[in-house]
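Action item from last meeting closed. Structure (328 res):
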C-alpha cells in the first residue's frame, strides 16, 4: 500500500502550487501557421501589405470610428503598450481596420488613429471588399439599429443611426508572419505587454530546432518540484522530447497529470512528449511537466538539459520560484 501511494505527496504539492494560474496557451493560435493575407488601402495613402512587415510584430484590431467605448479603449490600451515597450516598440506595428466603410472615410479614419499615436496605421476597405477579409480573420461585424418605437416622440431627422457589433480582439502576428495570438478585448494590459514583448524578443530567423519558452520551476519543501515550459517546434518535421536531466536534481522524469473524477493520477511518460511540426506543446500545472526529485539545495536557477529525438540536447537555465509565488 505504501508503495502504491508513494507519489501522492509530490502530486498534491504541485497541484496546490499550480492552482489558479492562467494557462499559458490559452490564447495561442495552434498549430503555428501563416497569418491570413492582408493587403488593404491605408487611410494615409498607399497599400498596407502584411507580407511586407517581416521583422516586426504586428497587432491588428478591428473597429470603427463612431464606436463610443470598445474601440477607443482598445486603442488606448495599444497606446500604453507602445509606451511600456520603450525602444523595443520600434519593431511593433499597430493596425486598426475599419469595419464601417460607409461612415469611415480615409481622412476621418486617419485623424482618428493618429489621435492615439502617429505610428498607428488605419486601414479602410470599400464595402464590397470587407467581407472576404473578415472571413479570413474569422471576425464578425454586424450593424445594430435602435428600436425606433422608442423614439416615436423624437423621430430621427437624418439617416437612422447604428452601432456595429464586432469582434473585439488583438490579433498578434510575429516577425515571421505567423499568427501567434488571438487575445480577447478583456485581456489585461500587463498580459498583453508580456506576450508582445516575448514575440519582439524572438529571433526572426526560421527555427532549425525546437525552442523553449516560459521555462520556470516550482520547488516544495519536500525537495521535489516541477518544471513548466512551452516547447515550440517551428520546423517542418515532427520531433519528440524523450528525456531531461539536471545536475541540480537526483532525477528528472517526464510526467503528466490526469484525472478520473476526483482521483488525480501522476503518470510517468517514458515515451516522451510528441512535438508535431509547426506546433506548440505546453507543459503546465495540472498537465504535462518535468518532475524533479531529490533537489539538494535551494537555488535561484536550475540548469536543465532537454533531449529531443531529432534535434538532440538543448540546455536551458530555468528560474526557480518558492512556494506561494505567483510565477506562472
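Sequence:
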Amino acid at each position: 500500500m505504501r508503495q502504491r501511494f508513494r507519489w501522492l505527496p509530490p502530486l498534491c504539492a504541485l497541484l496546490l502550487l499550480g492552482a489558479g494560474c492562467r494557462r499559458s496557451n490559452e490564447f495561442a493560435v495552434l498549430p503555428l501557421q501563416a497569418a491570413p493575407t492582408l493587403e488593404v488601402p491605408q487611410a494615409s495613402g498607399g497599400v498596407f501589405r502584411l507580407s511586407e512587415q517581416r521583422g516586426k510584430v504586428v497587432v491588428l484590431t478591428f473597429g470603427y470610428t463612431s464606436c463610443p467605448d470598445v474601440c477607443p479603449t482598445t486603442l488606448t490600451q495599444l497606446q500604453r503598450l507602445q509606451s511600456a515597450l520603450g525602444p523595443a516598440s520600434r519593431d511593433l506595428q499597430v493596425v486598426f481596420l475599419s469595419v464601417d466603410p460607409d461612415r469611415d472615410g480615409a481622412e476621418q479614419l486617419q485623424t482618428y488613429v493618429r489621435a492615439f499615436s502617429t505610428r498607428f496605421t488605419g486601414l479602410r476597405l470599400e464595402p464590397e471588399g470587407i467581407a472576404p477579409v473578415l472571413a479570413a480573420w474569422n471576425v464578425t461585424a454586424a450593424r445594430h439599429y435602435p428600436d425606433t418605437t422608442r423614439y416615436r416622440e423624437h423621430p430621427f431627422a437624418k439617416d437612422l443611426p447604428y452601432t456595429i457589433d464586432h469582434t473585439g480582439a488583438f490579433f498578434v502576428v510575429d516577425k515571421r508572419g505567423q499568427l501567434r495570438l488571438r487575445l480577447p478585448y478583456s485581456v489585461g494590459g500587463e498580459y498583453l505587454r508580456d506576450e508582445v514583448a516575448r514575440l519582439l524578443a524572438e529571433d526572426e530567423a526560421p527555427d532549425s530546432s525546437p525552442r523553449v519558452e516560459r521555462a520556470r520551476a516550482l520547488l516544495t519543501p519536500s525537495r521535489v518540484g516541477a518544471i513548466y515550459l512551452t516547447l515550440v517546434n517551428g520546423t517542418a518535421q515532427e520531433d519528440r522530447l524523450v528525456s531531461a536531466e539536471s545536475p541540480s536534481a537526483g532525477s528528472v522524469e517526464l510526467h503528466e497529470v490526469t484525472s478520473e473524477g476526483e482521483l488525480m493520477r501522476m503518470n510517468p511518460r517514458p515515451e516522451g512528449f510528441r512535438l508535431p511540426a509547426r506546433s506548440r506543446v505546453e507543459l503546465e500545472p495540472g498537465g504535462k511537466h518535468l518532475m524533479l526529485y531529490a533537489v539538494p539545495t535551494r537555488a535561484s536557477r536550475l540548469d536543465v538539459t532537454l533531449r529531443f529525438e531529432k534535434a538532440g540536447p538543448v540546455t536551458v537555465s530555468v528560474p526557480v520560484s518558492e512556494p506561494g509565488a505567483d510565477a506562472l
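Note appended to the action item: The first helix runs from residue 8 to 18.
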